[in-house]
Protein backbone atom coordinates (compact mmCIF):
# COMPACT_ATOMS: atom_id res chain seq x y z
CA UNK A 1 0.00 0.00 0.00
CA UNK A 2 2.82 2.36 0.94
CA UNK A 3 4.50 1.78 -2.41
CA UNK A 4 1.25 2.46 -4.26
CA UNK A 5 0.75 5.71 -2.32
CA UNK A 6 4.31 6.78 -3.14
CA UNK A 7 3.82 5.99 -6.86
CA UNK A 8 0.53 7.90 -6.84
CA UNK A 9 2.24 10.98 -5.32
CA UNK A 10 5.08 10.76 -7.86
CA UNK A 11 2.57 10.57 -10.72
CA UNK A 12 0.68 13.54 -9.28
CA UNK A 13 3.89 15.61 -9.13
CA UNK A 14 4.76 14.56 -12.70
CA UNK A 15 1.30 15.62 -13.87
CA UNK A 16 1.64 18.90 -11.97
CA UNK A 17 5.08 19.51 -13.52
CA UNK A 18 3.67 18.91 -16.99
CA UNK A 19 0.77 21.28 -16.30
CA UNK A 20 3.14 23.94 -14.96
CA UNK A 21 5.35 23.58 -18.05
CA UNK A 22 2.29 24.02 -20.28
CA UNK A 23 1.29 27.14 -18.32
CA UNK A 24 4.87 28.41 -18.59
CA UNK A 25 4.85 27.90 -22.35
CA UNK A 26 1.52 29.72 -22.64
CA UNK A 27 2.91 32.62 -20.57
CA UNK A 28 6.07 32.76 -22.72
CA UNK A 29 3.96 32.74 -25.88
CA UNK A 30 1.76 35.49 -24.45
CA UNK A 31 4.81 37.61 -23.57
CA UNK A 32 6.25 37.05 -27.05
CA UNK A 33 3.02 38.20 -28.70
CA UNK A 34 2.58 41.10 -26.29
CA UNK A 35 6.13 42.35 -26.98
CA UNK A 36 5.16 43.04 -30.56
CA UNK A 37 2.18 45.10 -29.41
CA UNK A 38 4.12 47.43 -27.08
CA UNK A 39 5.36 49.80 -29.78
CA UNK A 40 1.98 50.12 -31.59
CA UNK A 41 0.33 50.62 -28.20
CA UNK A 42 2.66 53.48 -27.27
CA UNK A 43 2.19 55.01 -30.73
CA UNK A 44 -1.61 54.85 -30.34
CA UNK A 45 -1.35 56.44 -26.89
CA UNK A 46 0.72 59.28 -28.38
CA UNK A 47 -1.89 59.89 -31.11
CA UNK A 48 -4.69 59.95 -28.52
CA UNK A 49 -2.66 62.30 -26.29
CA UNK A 50 -2.12 64.72 -29.19
CA UNK A 51 -5.87 64.66 -29.89
CA UNK A 52 -6.62 65.46 -26.25
CA UNK A 53 -4.10 68.32 -26.20
CA UNK A 54 -5.62 69.72 -29.42
CA UNK A 55 -9.08 69.48 -27.81
CA UNK A 56 -7.86 71.55 -24.85
CA UNK A 57 -6.19 74.15 -27.09
CA UNK A 58 -9.11 74.64 -29.50
CA UNK A 59 -11.97 73.80 -27.16
CA UNK A 60 -15.14 75.77 -27.85
CA UNK A 61 -13.98 77.06 -31.23
CA UNK A 62 -15.95 76.36 -34.43
CA UNK A 63 -14.73 73.26 -36.22
CA UNK A 64 -12.89 71.92 -33.17
CA UNK A 65 -13.62 68.29 -34.10
CA UNK A 66 -11.96 68.80 -37.49
CA UNK A 67 -8.83 70.28 -35.84
CA UNK A 68 -8.71 67.45 -33.28
CA UNK A 69 -8.96 64.82 -36.03
CA UNK A 70 -6.33 66.64 -38.11
CA UNK A 71 -3.99 66.84 -35.10
CA UNK A 72 -4.32 63.09 -34.51
CA UNK A 73 -3.58 62.40 -38.20
CA UNK A 74 -0.63 64.82 -38.03
CA UNK A 75 0.73 62.90 -35.03
CA UNK A 76 0.36 59.65 -37.00
CA UNK A 77 2.22 61.25 -39.91
CA UNK A 78 5.06 62.43 -37.64
CA UNK A 79 5.42 58.93 -36.17
CA UNK A 80 5.85 57.51 -39.66
CA UNK A 81 8.42 60.15 -40.63
CA UNK A 82 10.46 59.11 -37.60
CA UNK A 83 10.11 55.45 -38.50
CA UNK A 84 11.10 55.87 -42.16
CA UNK A 85 12.83 59.12 -43.11
CA UNK A 86 15.32 59.54 -40.26
CA UNK A 87 16.94 56.16 -40.99
CA UNK A 88 18.73 57.73 -43.94
CA UNK A 89 20.69 60.07 -41.67
CA UNK A 90 21.62 57.52 -39.03
CA UNK A 91 21.87 54.29 -41.04
CA UNK A 92 25.42 54.84 -42.38
CA UNK A 93 26.79 55.78 -38.94
CA UNK A 94 25.23 52.67 -37.36
CA UNK A 95 26.18 50.37 -40.23
CA UNK A 96 29.81 51.48 -40.01
CA UNK A 97 29.76 50.92 -36.23
CA UNK A 98 30.77 54.51 -35.54
CA UNK A 99 27.63 54.64 -33.37
CA UNK A 100 25.55 52.05 -31.58
CA UNK A 101 21.88 51.74 -32.52
CA UNK A 102 20.79 53.10 -29.13
CA UNK A 103 23.23 56.02 -29.40
CA UNK A 104 22.00 56.82 -32.91
CA UNK A 105 18.37 56.78 -31.79
CA UNK A 106 19.10 59.19 -28.93
CA UNK A 107 21.22 61.57 -31.05
CA UNK A 108 18.67 61.58 -33.88
CA UNK A 109 15.74 62.19 -31.53
CA UNK A 110 17.52 65.15 -29.90
CA UNK A 111 18.75 66.81 -33.09
CA UNK A 112 15.58 66.18 -35.12
CA UNK A 113 13.56 67.86 -32.35
CA UNK A 114 16.03 70.74 -32.05
CA UNK A 115 15.98 71.29 -35.81
CA UNK A 116 12.19 71.36 -35.89
CA UNK A 117 11.69 73.58 -32.85
CA UNK A 118 14.69 75.94 -33.18
CA UNK A 119 15.01 76.40 -36.94
CA UNK A 120 11.72 74.97 -38.20
CA UNK A 121 9.70 77.03 -40.66
CA UNK A 122 7.58 79.82 -39.23
CA UNK A 123 5.82 80.06 -42.59
CA UNK A 124 5.21 77.35 -45.16
CA UNK A 125 3.24 77.16 -48.35
CA UNK A 126 0.07 75.35 -47.47
CA UNK A 127 -0.27 73.29 -50.61
CA UNK A 128 3.05 71.43 -50.83
CA UNK A 129 5.10 74.06 -52.65
CA UNK A 130 2.50 75.16 -55.15
CA UNK A 131 1.46 71.73 -56.40
CA UNK A 132 -2.19 72.76 -56.61
CA UNK A 133 -3.90 76.14 -56.67
CA UNK A 134 -6.07 76.62 -53.52
CA UNK A 135 -8.48 78.94 -55.33
CA UNK A 136 -9.31 76.13 -57.78
CA UNK A 137 -11.14 74.30 -54.99
CA UNK A 138 -14.87 75.06 -54.54
CA UNK A 139 -14.62 76.41 -50.97
CA UNK A 140 -12.63 76.28 -47.75
CA UNK A 141 -14.44 73.13 -46.62
CA UNK A 142 -13.23 71.17 -49.64
CA UNK A 143 -9.72 72.55 -49.04
CA UNK A 144 -9.74 71.24 -45.46
CA UNK A 145 -10.84 67.77 -46.59
CA UNK A 146 -8.20 67.79 -49.35
CA UNK A 147 -5.43 68.62 -46.86
CA UNK A 148 -6.68 66.03 -44.38
CA UNK A 149 -6.85 63.38 -47.11
CA UNK A 150 -3.31 64.26 -48.25
CA UNK A 151 -1.96 64.03 -44.70
CA UNK A 152 -3.62 60.69 -43.95
CA UNK A 153 -2.69 59.19 -47.33
CA UNK A 154 0.96 60.20 -46.95
CA UNK A 155 1.05 58.72 -43.45
CA UNK A 156 -0.51 55.45 -44.60
CA UNK A 157 1.94 55.14 -47.48
CA UNK A 158 4.94 55.84 -45.20
CA UNK A 159 3.63 53.23 -42.78
CA UNK A 160 3.33 50.64 -45.56
CA UNK A 161 6.79 51.51 -46.95
CA UNK A 162 8.34 51.12 -43.49
CA UNK A 163 6.65 47.73 -43.05
CA UNK A 164 8.01 46.66 -46.47
CA UNK A 165 11.48 47.92 -45.55
CA UNK A 166 11.70 50.67 -48.19
CA UNK A 167 13.08 54.15 -47.38
CA UNK A 168 10.91 56.68 -49.26
CA UNK A 169 10.61 60.46 -49.44
CA UNK A 170 8.29 62.20 -46.97
CA UNK A 171 7.97 65.25 -49.20
CA UNK A 172 7.07 63.14 -52.25
CA UNK A 173 4.45 61.31 -50.17
CA UNK A 174 2.84 64.62 -49.16
CA UNK A 175 3.03 65.90 -52.75
CA UNK A 176 1.32 62.76 -54.04
CA UNK A 177 -1.37 63.09 -51.41
CA UNK A 178 -2.08 66.72 -52.36
CA UNK A 179 -2.17 65.84 -56.08
CA UNK A 180 -4.63 62.97 -55.58
CA UNK A 181 -7.03 65.02 -53.46
CA UNK A 182 -6.63 68.06 -55.71
CA UNK A 183 -7.50 66.14 -58.87
CA UNK A 184 -10.64 64.64 -57.32
CA UNK A 185 -11.70 67.96 -55.80
CA UNK A 186 -10.96 70.34 -58.68
CA UNK A 187 -9.87 68.34 -61.73
CA UNK A 188 -6.54 67.86 -63.50
CA UNK A 189 -6.29 71.56 -64.33
CA UNK A 190 -5.74 72.44 -60.65
CA UNK A 191 -2.37 70.64 -60.59
CA UNK A 192 0.88 72.39 -61.53
CA UNK A 193 2.22 69.71 -63.89
CA UNK A 194 5.51 71.58 -64.45
CA UNK A 195 6.32 71.21 -60.75
CA UNK A 196 5.29 67.57 -60.92
CA UNK A 197 7.65 66.99 -63.87
CA UNK A 198 10.52 68.45 -61.84
CA UNK A 199 9.68 66.16 -58.92
CA UNK A 200 9.60 63.15 -61.25
CA UNK A 201 13.02 64.19 -62.62
CA UNK A 202 14.37 64.27 -59.06
CA UNK A 203 13.73 60.51 -58.79
CA UNK A 204 16.73 60.09 -61.10
CA UNK A 205 18.72 63.24 -60.33
CA UNK A 206 18.86 62.81 -56.52
CA UNK A 207 20.23 59.26 -56.24
CA UNK A 208 22.56 59.58 -59.24
CA UNK A 209 24.08 62.84 -58.01
CA UNK A 210 24.40 61.51 -54.46
CA UNK A 211 25.94 58.26 -55.69
CA UNK A 212 28.47 59.93 -58.00
CA UNK A 213 29.68 62.38 -55.33
CA UNK A 214 29.94 59.66 -52.65
CA UNK A 215 31.85 57.38 -55.04
CA UNK A 216 34.20 60.25 -56.01
CA UNK A 217 35.14 60.89 -52.36
CA UNK A 218 35.65 57.17 -51.73
CA UNK A 219 37.92 57.02 -54.78
CA UNK A 220 39.89 59.97 -53.39
CA UNK A 221 40.30 58.29 -49.99
CA UNK A 222 41.37 54.99 -51.54
CA UNK A 223 43.87 56.65 -53.87
CA UNK A 224 45.38 59.18 -51.47
CA UNK A 225 45.12 57.44 -48.09
CA UNK A 226 44.35 53.70 -48.15
CA UNK A 227 46.53 52.42 -51.00
CA UNK A 228 49.73 54.27 -50.13
CA UNK A 229 52.80 52.99 -48.30
CA UNK A 230 52.66 55.40 -45.32
CA UNK A 231 48.96 55.45 -44.47
CA UNK A 232 49.34 57.44 -41.24
CA UNK A 233 51.27 60.27 -42.91
CA UNK A 234 48.72 60.38 -45.71
CA UNK A 235 45.88 60.45 -43.17
CA UNK A 236 47.48 63.36 -41.31
CA UNK A 237 47.51 65.31 -44.57
CA UNK A 238 44.14 64.34 -46.04
CA UNK A 239 41.78 63.73 -43.09
CA UNK A 240 41.91 67.41 -41.95
CA UNK A 241 41.17 68.44 -45.56
CA UNK A 242 38.20 66.07 -45.69
CA UNK A 243 36.95 67.33 -42.31
CA UNK A 244 37.35 70.90 -43.58
CA UNK A 245 35.27 70.01 -46.66
CA UNK A 246 32.67 68.42 -44.38
CA UNK A 247 32.61 71.46 -42.07
CA UNK A 248 32.18 73.82 -45.00
CA UNK A 249 29.58 71.66 -46.71
CA UNK A 250 27.46 71.32 -43.58
CA UNK A 251 27.78 75.02 -42.73
CA UNK A 252 26.46 75.89 -46.19
CA UNK A 253 23.86 73.09 -45.99
CA UNK A 254 22.51 74.29 -42.62
CA UNK A 255 22.57 77.91 -43.71
CA UNK A 256 20.69 77.07 -46.88
CA UNK A 257 18.24 74.42 -45.63
CA UNK A 258 18.08 74.60 -41.86
CA UNK A 259 18.45 78.29 -41.01
CA UNK A 260 16.70 79.87 -43.98
CA UNK A 261 13.57 80.15 -41.86
CA UNK A 262 15.33 82.44 -39.37
CA UNK A 263 16.75 84.85 -41.95
CA UNK A 264 16.97 85.14 -45.73
CA UNK A 265 20.13 83.76 -47.29
CA UNK A 266 21.24 83.36 -50.90
CA UNK A 267 23.19 80.45 -52.36
CA UNK A 268 26.27 82.69 -52.76
CA UNK A 269 26.12 83.75 -49.10
CA UNK A 270 25.69 80.13 -48.02
CA UNK A 271 28.76 79.07 -50.04
CA UNK A 272 30.84 81.93 -48.56
CA UNK A 273 29.82 80.85 -45.05
CA UNK A 274 30.80 77.30 -45.98
CA UNK A 275 34.23 78.41 -47.25
CA UNK A 276 35.02 80.31 -44.05
CA UNK A 277 33.87 77.50 -41.77
CA UNK A 278 35.65 74.91 -43.94
CA UNK A 279 39.02 76.69 -43.68
CA UNK A 280 38.60 77.05 -39.91
CA UNK A 281 37.66 73.36 -39.59
CA UNK A 282 40.71 72.33 -41.63
CA UNK A 283 43.13 74.43 -39.54
CA UNK A 284 41.64 73.33 -36.21
CA UNK A 285 41.72 69.61 -37.01
CA UNK A 286 45.35 69.45 -38.24
CA UNK A 287 46.86 69.27 -34.71
CA UNK A 288 43.95 67.13 -33.47
CA UNK A 289 44.45 64.44 -36.12
CA UNK A 290 48.22 64.53 -35.56
CA UNK A 291 47.75 63.85 -31.84
CA UNK A 292 45.09 61.20 -32.45
CA UNK A 293 47.24 59.33 -34.98
CA UNK A 294 50.36 59.15 -32.79
CA UNK A 295 51.36 55.55 -32.13
CA UNK A 296 48.86 54.13 -34.63
CA UNK A 297 49.83 51.10 -36.69
CA UNK A 298 50.33 51.64 -40.41
CA UNK A 299 47.23 49.73 -41.54
CA UNK A 300 43.72 50.31 -42.82
CA UNK A 301 42.04 49.52 -39.49
CA UNK A 302 43.79 52.47 -37.86
CA UNK A 303 42.35 54.86 -40.42
CA UNK A 304 38.76 53.96 -39.50
CA UNK A 305 39.28 55.42 -36.02
CA UNK A 306 40.11 58.85 -37.44
CA UNK A 307 36.75 59.05 -39.25
CA UNK A 308 34.58 57.92 -36.32
CA UNK A 309 33.94 61.25 -34.54
CA UNK A 310 33.48 63.33 -37.74
CA UNK A 311 30.92 60.76 -38.90
CA UNK A 312 28.94 61.04 -35.65
CA UNK A 313 28.96 64.85 -35.92
CA UNK A 314 27.83 64.72 -39.56
CA UNK A 315 24.94 62.38 -38.67
CA UNK A 316 23.81 64.78 -35.92
CA UNK A 317 23.98 67.76 -38.29
CA UNK A 318 22.03 65.89 -40.97
CA UNK A 319 19.32 65.16 -38.39
CA UNK A 320 19.20 68.83 -37.33
CA UNK A 321 18.84 70.01 -40.94
CA UNK A 322 16.21 67.33 -41.64
CA UNK A 323 14.20 68.41 -38.60
CA UNK A 324 14.41 72.06 -39.65
CA UNK A 325 13.45 71.49 -43.26
CA UNK A 326 11.32 68.38 -43.76
CA UNK A 327 9.20 68.55 -40.61
CA UNK A 328 7.71 71.86 -41.73
CA UNK A 329 6.71 70.25 -45.03
CA UNK A 330 5.12 67.34 -43.20
CA UNK A 331 3.04 69.44 -40.78
CA UNK A 332 2.25 72.08 -43.40
CA UNK A 333 -1.13 70.49 -44.27
CA UNK A 334 -2.01 70.37 -40.55
CA UNK A 335 -1.11 74.07 -40.18
CA UNK A 336 -3.22 74.84 -43.25
CA UNK A 337 -6.21 73.00 -41.76
CA UNK A 338 -5.88 74.83 -38.43
CA UNK A 339 -5.63 78.23 -40.17
CA UNK A 340 -8.55 77.57 -42.53
CA UNK A 341 -10.84 76.32 -39.74
CA UNK A 342 -9.98 79.22 -37.43
CA UNK A 343 -9.95 82.03 -40.03
CA UNK A 344 -12.45 80.66 -42.53
CA UNK A 345 -10.30 81.51 -45.56
CA UNK A 346 -7.62 79.83 -47.68
CA UNK A 347 -4.20 81.51 -47.47
CA UNK A 348 -1.26 80.99 -49.84
CA UNK A 349 1.04 80.90 -46.83
CA UNK A 350 0.29 80.35 -43.15
CA UNK A 351 2.19 80.48 -39.89
CA UNK A 352 2.79 77.19 -38.11
CA UNK A 353 1.59 77.36 -34.46
CA UNK A 354 4.15 76.17 -31.92
CA UNK A 355 1.98 73.27 -30.82
CA UNK A 356 1.80 72.00 -34.42
CA UNK A 357 5.62 72.08 -34.72
CA UNK A 358 5.84 70.34 -31.33
CA UNK A 359 3.56 67.57 -32.62
CA UNK A 360 5.91 67.11 -35.58
CA UNK A 361 9.09 67.20 -33.49
CA UNK A 362 7.90 64.88 -30.71
CA UNK A 363 6.13 62.55 -33.13
CA UNK A 364 9.31 62.09 -35.16
CA UNK A 365 11.30 61.29 -32.01
CA UNK A 366 8.70 58.79 -30.74
CA UNK A 367 8.35 57.14 -34.16
CA UNK A 368 12.12 56.89 -34.50
CA UNK A 369 12.56 55.27 -31.08
CA UNK A 370 9.67 52.82 -31.58
CA UNK A 371 9.99 51.82 -35.22
CA UNK A 372 13.24 53.32 -36.57
CA UNK A 373 15.67 50.43 -35.92
CA UNK A 374 14.28 48.31 -38.79
CA UNK A 375 15.13 50.78 -41.56
CA UNK A 376 18.30 52.00 -39.84
CA UNK A 377 19.62 48.44 -40.03
CA UNK A 378 18.53 48.10 -43.67
CA UNK A 379 20.14 51.38 -44.76
CA UNK A 380 23.26 50.81 -42.69
CA UNK A 381 23.88 47.09 -43.12
CA UNK A 382 21.82 45.39 -45.79
CA UNK A 383 22.47 47.38 -48.99
CA UNK A 384 26.26 47.19 -48.88
CA UNK A 385 28.88 46.84 -46.17
CA UNK A 386 29.90 50.20 -44.70
CA UNK A 387 32.87 51.28 -42.62
CA UNK A 388 33.48 54.79 -41.17
CA UNK A 389 35.27 55.98 -44.33
CA UNK A 390 32.51 54.83 -46.69
CA UNK A 391 29.77 56.16 -44.40
CA UNK A 392 31.63 59.48 -44.17
CA UNK A 393 31.53 59.73 -47.97
CA UNK A 394 27.75 59.16 -47.92
CA UNK A 395 27.16 61.89 -45.30
CA UNK A 396 29.43 64.32 -47.14
CA UNK A 397 27.66 63.55 -50.41
CA UNK A 398 24.27 64.37 -48.88
CA UNK A 399 25.36 67.87 -47.85
CA UNK A 400 27.19 68.70 -51.10
CA UNK A 401 24.41 67.34 -53.34
CA UNK A 402 21.77 69.54 -51.68
CA UNK A 403 23.98 72.63 -52.18
CA UNK A 404 24.69 71.82 -55.84
CA UNK A 405 21.04 71.02 -56.51
CA UNK A 406 19.91 74.29 -54.89
CA UNK A 407 22.41 76.20 -57.00
CA UNK A 408 21.08 74.52 -60.16
CA UNK A 409 17.47 74.95 -59.05
CA UNK A 410 16.79 71.21 -59.05
CA UNK A 411 14.27 69.66 -56.60
CA UNK A 412 15.97 66.80 -54.74
CA UNK A 413 15.05 64.44 -51.92
CA UNK A 414 17.36 63.97 -48.93
CA UNK A 415 16.15 60.35 -48.72
CA UNK A 416 17.07 59.64 -52.34
CA UNK A 417 20.45 61.37 -51.98
CA UNK A 418 21.48 59.40 -48.88
CA UNK A 419 20.38 56.01 -50.24
CA UNK A 420 21.84 56.87 -53.65
CA UNK A 421 25.13 57.67 -51.91
CA UNK A 422 25.15 54.22 -50.29
CA UNK A 423 24.50 52.55 -53.64
CA UNK A 424 27.22 54.73 -55.22
CA UNK A 425 29.75 53.63 -52.62
CA UNK A 426 28.74 49.99 -53.07
CA UNK A 427 28.97 50.03 -56.87
CA UNK A 428 32.31 51.82 -56.75
CA UNK A 429 33.60 49.10 -54.41
CA UNK A 430 32.41 46.47 -56.90
CA UNK A 431 34.13 48.22 -59.80
CA UNK A 432 37.33 48.72 -57.82
CA UNK A 433 37.40 45.10 -56.58
CA UNK A 434 36.79 43.86 -60.14
CA UNK A 435 39.60 46.05 -61.44
CA UNK A 436 42.08 44.81 -58.82
CA UNK A 437 41.06 41.17 -59.39
CA UNK A 438 41.52 41.57 -63.13
CA UNK A 439 44.95 43.16 -62.69
CA UNK A 440 45.98 40.44 -60.23
CA UNK A 441 44.71 37.74 -62.59
CA UNK A 442 46.69 39.21 -65.50
CA UNK A 443 49.87 39.32 -63.40
CA UNK A 444 49.42 35.72 -62.22
CA UNK A 445 48.07 34.47 -65.54
CA UNK A 446 44.88 33.27 -63.86
CA UNK A 447 41.89 35.42 -64.85
CA UNK A 448 38.94 35.37 -62.45
CA UNK A 449 36.09 33.27 -63.94
CA UNK A 450 32.71 35.02 -64.54
CA UNK A 451 30.88 32.94 -61.91
CA UNK A 452 33.44 33.94 -59.27
CA UNK A 453 33.11 37.62 -60.22
CA UNK A 454 29.32 37.35 -59.88
CA UNK A 455 29.71 35.84 -56.42
CA UNK A 456 31.78 38.86 -55.35
CA UNK A 457 28.99 41.41 -55.96
CA UNK A 458 29.01 43.89 -53.07
CA UNK A 459 25.55 45.47 -53.52
CA UNK A 460 22.36 43.53 -52.86
CA UNK A 461 20.34 43.83 -56.07
CA UNK A 462 17.09 42.78 -54.38
CA UNK A 463 17.20 45.81 -52.09
CA UNK A 464 18.01 48.06 -55.03
CA UNK A 465 14.89 46.88 -56.88
CA UNK A 466 12.70 47.23 -53.78
CA UNK A 467 13.90 50.77 -53.08
CA UNK A 468 13.69 51.90 -56.73
CA UNK A 469 10.16 50.52 -57.08
CA UNK A 470 9.05 52.23 -53.87
CA UNK A 471 10.46 55.57 -55.07
CA UNK A 472 8.65 55.35 -58.41
CA UNK A 473 5.38 54.24 -56.81
CA UNK A 474 5.40 56.80 -53.95
CA UNK A 475 3.65 59.72 -55.69
CA UNK A 476 1.00 57.69 -57.59
CA UNK A 477 0.34 55.42 -54.58
CA UNK A 478 -0.12 58.29 -52.12
CA UNK A 479 -2.20 60.13 -54.75
CA UNK A 480 -4.53 57.15 -55.18
CA UNK A 481 -4.86 56.71 -51.41
CA UNK A 482 -5.57 60.42 -50.99
CA UNK A 483 -8.24 60.40 -53.71
CA UNK A 484 -10.05 57.51 -51.99
CA UNK A 485 -9.82 59.15 -48.55
CA UNK A 486 -11.08 62.46 -49.95
CA UNK A 487 -14.08 60.80 -51.58
CA UNK A 488 -14.91 59.03 -48.30
CA UNK A 489 -14.62 62.24 -46.27
CA UNK A 490 -16.68 64.15 -48.79
CA UNK A 491 -19.37 61.47 -48.79
CA UNK A 492 -19.54 61.42 -44.98
CA UNK A 493 -19.90 65.19 -44.69
Automatic annotation (TrEMBL):
Stretches that traverse the bilayer: 32-59, 65-86, 98-119, 143-166, 173-194, 200-221, 233-256, 262-284, 305-324, 352-371, 391-408, 464-489
Location(s), subcellular: Membrane
Keyword Calcium recorded: no
Its membrane topology: Multi-pass membrane protein
Keyword check for Transmembrane helix: yes
InterPro entries: Phos_transporter
Domain of life: Bacteria
Keyword terms of this UniProt record: Membrane, Phosphate transport, Transmembrane, Transmembrane helix, Transport
Alphabetical list of PANTHER family matching this protein: PHOSPHATE TRANSPORTER
Family: Belongs to the inorganic phosphate transporter (PiT) (TC 2.A.20) family.
Name of protein: Phosphate transporter
Organism: Thioclava sediminum
Organism classification: Bacteria, Pseudomonadati, Pseudomonadota, Alphaproteobacteria, Rhodobacterales
